[in-house]
Design goal:
extended; 79% helix; mainly alpha; 3 helices
Length: 68
Amino acid sequence: MEETQFKTSSYQRKAYKAYIARKKDDPEFREKMRQNQKKYYEKNREKILARKKAEREANKASSSDDSD
């Protein structure tokens, strides 16, 4: 299994997860997160859809290989 290489250090990722856990019940924070996610999706829509299509094709190919 290949190990994931992160750009951020582990303590920063843990602190971010703790921050999200603390703030997740705040309605203003949730709305801001939704807006940011929507903005990211709109900005990177083509890349996201291409990645999903490639994953579906890879899964389809691997499932057809298993049935042979």
